[in-house]
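Re-run with default settings, no changes from the original entry. Doing this only to confirm the output is reproducible before filing.
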Amino acid sequence: IDGAILKPWITGYLALMGGVILWRALKGPAPRLFPVKYSGPLGFFGGLFDAIGGGGWGPTVATAMVGAGGDPRTSIGTTNTAEFVVTSTISATFLVTLLTGHWADAGDLTSHATAVAGLVAGGLVSAPLAGLMVKLAPQRILTGAVGVLVTSLAAYQAARLAGWV
């Protein structure tokens, strides 16, 4: 599936969910657990969008859980834990590919080493800071911040799709 076909739909979804999350932040509902019966389909579509376009897991899954009224700390923590498992699997696959010599078919490792090192360094710095912020921030402020971030990202992506940026 061509990711360019799905981008407008995912952007619309994120804009909608960002609005729902902002509404929930202003309304201030009591947190509730994300319904377990929706976890399987949500994980499937989150993984599908991540595989198609790259980076779809967090925005798709975390926004759905927060938008459904889940506690932002639990929703973000659950999403990041699942993403850790997926990333570990991808990293193991990468190492197997590298060690078995199949990397030569994809190009030179040194041409990608700087980008990989930047991603690793950024993750090592940002993950503990994000965990601390999520722990310390009040729930309504955290929910509002997630809503503003998701809505802003959707607006930026829509502007890119329209050719304004």
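Helices lie at 3-27, 39-53, 57-67, 72-99, 110-136, 139-162. DSSP finds six helices and no strands in the chain.
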